[in-house]
Amino acid sequence: MNARFKHAMGSLLMAVMLCSCQSRTVQRLVKAKTAPVTPFLEKRAEMRPLRDRLPVHYVWRNLDLETQKRVMEKRRIYIAPVSLAYLQPVTKDLALMEMEAGVTERDEKEMARELRKRFAVAFLKSPTPRYRIAKEPGPDTVTLELAITQLSPTSISGNVVKTASRFFIGPLSGVFGIFAKGNIAIEGKVTLSDTGVPVLQFADNEKDKVTLYTARDFQPYGHALVAMDEWAAQFEEFTRTFSDHMVEESSFITLKPW
Question: What DSSP string runs through 83-101?
Fold first, then answer.
């Protein structure tokens, strides 16, 4: 095996060992920074981190007892089509260059469909879901509305350079990966379907995970789809657990090749 490759693998394994015993503080430092919260969320001025319950950047909860009682009476959830009305322009240079050259597209409509689908799948596949999926809002449902507010594709050319340079300069090749990372930011809000009373609002941002090699580095939205699955699973777990349960944060690193 190439000596530089061994060195790179060793460095990654050390990082994984660090990750296995890392504190939540370290996890936050290396993950994506917060994205500006948009007017999609009416309670944005009142939102705060709630990491001991839901691992997203900002959360607002309606703690009114009557509202909470009504939420507990609901048995189904309607997931509305995802909004793109607050989607911000791509600002990352490599992603912009590839989009202008026709190498990648900002496929926001497909990503919106995927986000909605993956949140629904999380409830459909859960062994003990709190809610069943409803085809339309009704008196026995809560409504989940989602918006994609940032969507930058992973830079394929940047990751090609990163991968090739790894065999020449070793772990320092990760510097190239910094400029190749994409990101996706979402916002969500839950309301009582019959009255429109707000129940929950949240916002989060995720960037490409740290990898040694994964095919997702060469797919414009491969990492974004993973983030969607993780958000969906976390939200579903949140809905069926009590207030003393902490939904686990997703890792910033992956060894999965696909």
Answer: B-TTPPPP--HHHHHHHHT
Write out pLDDT tens, residues 193-227.
999 999 999 999 999 776 655 555 657 788 899 99
Nearest to 61 by CA among 184, 180, 197, 178: 197
Burial grade of 161 (CB within 10 A; 0-12, 13-18, 19 or more): middle
**For residues 144 and 167, what is the distance between their CA atoms, to the nearest angstrom?**
47
Query: Distances from the Cα of 97 to the Cαs of 11, 103, 107, in angstroms?
Result: 31, 9, 16
The closest of 121, 131, 142, 133 to 198, measured between CA atoms, is: 142
Longest dimension (CA), the chain: 65
Lookup result for tokens 């510097």: 175
Gap between the Cα atoms of 31 and 50, Å rounded: 16
Predicted model pTM: 0.81
Contacts of 196 (CB under 8 A, 6+ apart): none
What do you get for the CA distance between the two ends of the chain, in Å?
22
Q: What length is written for the chain?
A: 258
